[in-house]
What we know:
The structure holds 3 protein chains of 3 kinds.
Chain A: H1 3-6, E1 9-14, H2 20-29, E2 41-42, E3 51-55, E4 58-59, H3 63-72, E5 78-82, H4 84-88, E6 98-100, E7 110-112, H5 119-141, H6 156-175
Parallel strand pairs in A: 1-2, 1-3, 3-5, 5-7
Antiparallel strand pairs in A: 4-6
Helix pairs in contact in A: 2-5
Chain B: H1 2-22, H2 26-51, H3 64-87, H4 91-112, H5 125-158, H6 165-184, H7 188-206, H8 212-241, H9 247-255, H10 260-273, H11 280-285, H12 291-300, H13 302-313, H14 321-342, H15 347-368, H16 371-402, H17 413-416, H18 418-432, H19 437-451, H20 455-480, H21 495-533, H22 551-572, E1 588-590, E2 595-597, E3 603-605, H23 614-617, H24 619-645
Antiparallel strand pairs in B: 1-2, 2-3
Helix pairs in contact in B: 1-2, 1-6, 2-5, 3-4, 3-7, 4-8, 5-6, 5-12, 5-16, 5-21, 6-7, 7-8, 8-10, 10-13, 10-24, 12-16, 13-15, 14-15, 14-20, 14-24, 15-16, 16-18, 16-19, 16-21, 18-20, 18-21, 21-22
Chain C: H1 3-35, H2 45-55, H3 65-84, H4 89-110, H5 113-144, H6 164-177, H7 205-228, H8 238-258, H9 264-289
Helix pairs in contact in C: 1-3, 1-7, 1-8, 2-7, 3-4, 3-7, 4-5, 5-6, 5-9, 6-7, 6-9, 7-8
Amino acid sequence: MSATAKSPWIIHYDASSCNGCDIEVLACLTPLYDVERFGIINTGNPKHADIFLVTGSVNERNGSVLQQIYSQMPEPKVVIACGVCACTGGIFRECYNTLGGIDKAIPVDVYAPGCAVRPEAIIDAVVVGLGVLEQKRVSLASGTLEEASLPSRLTAADKMVADQTVRASALAETIG
Amino acid sequence: MGMVNLAFLIVFPVVAAGVLLLVRNNRARSVVVIVSAAAIMIASAWLAVGHLFSETWYPPFEGEWVTILTLVIDVLCCAYIIVKGIRHKKPLAVALAAVQTVIIVAFELLIAHGMTIENNLYVDGLSVIMTLIIGVIGGGICIYALGYMHDFQVHEDDNDKPDRRPVFFALMFVFLSAMFAIVFSNNLTWLLCAWEVTTVCSFALIGYTRTPEAIDNSFRQIVMNLIGGLAFALALVYLGYSGILELDKLIAQGALGGLVIPLALLAVAAFTKAAQVPFQSWLLGAMVAPTPTSALLHSSTMVKAGVFLLIKLAPCFGWSYNGIMVVLVGGFTFLFCSFLAVSQSNAKRVLAYSTVANLGLIVACAGVGTPEAVWAAIFLLIFHAAAKSLLFLCVGTAEHHIGSRDIEDMDNLFVRMPILARLMALGMLCMFIAPFGMLISKWATIVSLVNTDNILLLFILAFGSAATFMFWAKWLGKVLAIAQQDPDVEKTVHPSEWFSLALMAALVLLLSVGFPFLSEFVVVPYLAHFAADILPGTTVWWGSISATIDFDNLIIMAVIVLALIAAFAVQFTRPKKPTASVYLAGVALDAEKRTYRNSLNGETQTTQRNWYLDGWLGEKTLEPIANIISILLIAVGLACSLLVTGGVL
Amino acid sequence: MTGLSFVFSLVGFGVLAPVIGCLLAGIDRKLTARLQGRVGPPLLQPWYDVRKLIVKQSAQVNSYQAFYVCMSLVLAVLAGAFFFAGGNFLLVVFVLTLSTLFFIIAAYSTRSPYAELGAEREIAQVMSYEPMVILISIAFYFALRTFDTGVVFSLDRPLILSLPLVFVGLLFILTIKLRKSPFDLSYSHHAHQELVKGITTEMSGRTLAMVEVMHWYESILFLGWVGLFLVWGSWFALIPAIIGISAVYFLEVFIDNNFARVKWQSMLKWSWVVTLVCCSLNIVLLYWLG
């Protein structure tokens, strides 16, 4: 295991979480779970971070924030979606202003489901993320790491149009 | 040959001033100024070649008529002040000038007349160093003023003000002549005359713009300096009664413990000239004058006349009542003015406070009086002159091109005026950080203070230096900040300004690198010659003379300077494009302009002000305390000198 | 300080200081974890961190920041080399101040709001500890009539016996210099701060690695200052010196874990009060002892 995998520094961003998952993220730092055993530090600064931990779903307002923080993290970097809202939009998925999971805004490497996500699941996701991080480090060193492309437009209106199209075609199918 | 050179340095600037007064054409004025400045620089250098390393030289010059001339000049100066004072209804200035005229005339006719003067003039290492400062830096500033005053006049034309540049340049050159006279005069009446001429030049230049503020400040200057002039004249009267009218004899007598009262009075005169607390407010007020004036008179030369006199008199101080007064006034001035500088955001006021603080340090060193302390004082004087004039000139140019002299507006100067910002940074580094000259001199000050057990002053130095770091570092940070690709506005800086800026910067670097050699071959020999030629053999405490800081350590510093120059030279020649934008919590709109999306979906620009600690270190809080302490110190010092002479103490 | 001793010191300090400093940083984190009832990271965690930072992609907001940080690092090493070669203490202090200035300028150069605020706080920190640092050297001179640090190895008894209060003052400002709570105003390792990562906010990858390594060098240099008070002219002196330095380091970690960060006003006020009281009383004591 290289040094990169032994020293994953984290930035945690609360997209639009109900704070349930955030509390579980913080719980990981407590003596009971003690993630610093794996060299994990919560830095709070994208420029220092290797792992982007996101809780909550993406809406029109925070999509660009997510993208900006993501793009300010130097490679190699890994994104972990923590909790079901971050994975798919969760119970907010159908909301008028919700776009869905964070993969609507940035590329996600590891999904950690749960409502709220359990600390064990977070730690597990980080450990899986370390494997991805290591791969990316190798490809960065060999110059084959590809820059992730981010969706350019993020509006709830797009999503509503898309949802309506899906519904209309489903309706058409049902009616026959 | 030396005599001709000396006469040239004193007389030629006056001739040049007369020509400049008549020339109205811009191009012709440029030619005259450049040629005259060059001539003065060459003559100064020529004098240095002859006398920089040698013992004190007394030019054979009788010049009885010069003494009469000085009397006429003294009376004319006072008459000028009286006329101005009556016109602007300033009774205090009129009264002081009148009293001074009476004293000087009475002194000349009743006491000095008929006294034999052995040597009217002298040239030694220190006066050559001063000559180089006046000639090279002063000449450079006069050339700078060509471009600066052009831009200045454009602004004045907009306000329908007349073009008074002939007067401006004439005054600058008259001033140079008077400064040369100060550093060569052994005859104290001549010295007083030159002293008064510099005061009047400064008075006229502060009031140059004729705005109400400028006139008020010019009268503040003249009142304070007339108090000093009065003290000088009274000292002269006392000395005349004691049969001494020569500087070297005064030093010799004073070093043996005599002449306590005139020394105290001369110290007060030097305090006013060097703007020590409580007289600092005239120097702050003088910042309304055009910037070349601030650079020449109010930082690099005229205020140095005060500390020059004290450095000369240093062997008379030491652990005496006068010495303690000088040390404490200088020390407290350093402390309070360093604190006050923290609270200022106007660049020229920061420079003014820093000037007063550094002069305070020189004064304190002179008061300590040991050869070690004088070594430190001389280097403080040299480096302060070079670095401060560079900084003043930088601020002047910046002001004309960014439209402000506020430090907060100098944000991003690194991009807007790339060369100027680098020069300004160099000046600042030289003022407060090792391995540059001022800090090494401060180091030497510490050494001389610990060797004389000056504990109070050591505490003052430790705390004052911390404040010094703060106000320079935060300004430096602002200037070196890089934010966005603003347009480069230094394309229109005049070549004359570039020339002088480059000259000052080169001087700063050259002096910093040459520090060990300057110490070894100029300052230490000067101290030895001074002790041997002037001091009586009984002043044992001026026995062994060596550099205050080991040659090794000086060489280490010089090498670090060279390494820094090399590193920066390499860095500046390979600019690279940035590969990331700054972090603005993920809501940046234009990261280059530091704008972000606010909570109402609008655009806001982030702004950041430096810390000024106004509540703690503001003028309202500290100035009264400083003034009271200093007035008390001077009062007690003068009282003690009276009591000592009266045999009570 | 001779040329030869300087070369030895430069090589020795340059190579050994980061090794010991890295281990100390590891011990610090381990100790902190234990004080909080956690297991904590491996001992070599700081080493892994730096190695990781070196291979990270370079992301510079301007082309000067990395240069300034590099200058800062080089000068810190130089200051340490002067110190351990037995050079002039004031020389060490001044070179170190230049190093700190470059670090501050590095942050200012970005003109990032968070970095700039961190830089301003760093200046306040310098203003807080600088009087004490200068007065340490002055008290050193009053006690030994020289500024050369090398003389401590020819003393009959350790300096702490003649400068006990100055030593206390040194401990006080050591907390600022080692960037420990309650005086870690400009940046610290702890997350979620009002100023993100303060002075290091815009530093990433190799630049940040240089900052970490500089911190190792500085830790050793400052602990060397502590050692200056504890040694005397005997090989036996190294044992109490090492014990004393370890105790001081543990004390700093302990303080770090038990105090919340203070405002800069309190830091400035208290460090100046402590400086004034400790140094003046100690100098009086020196005169009283003769």
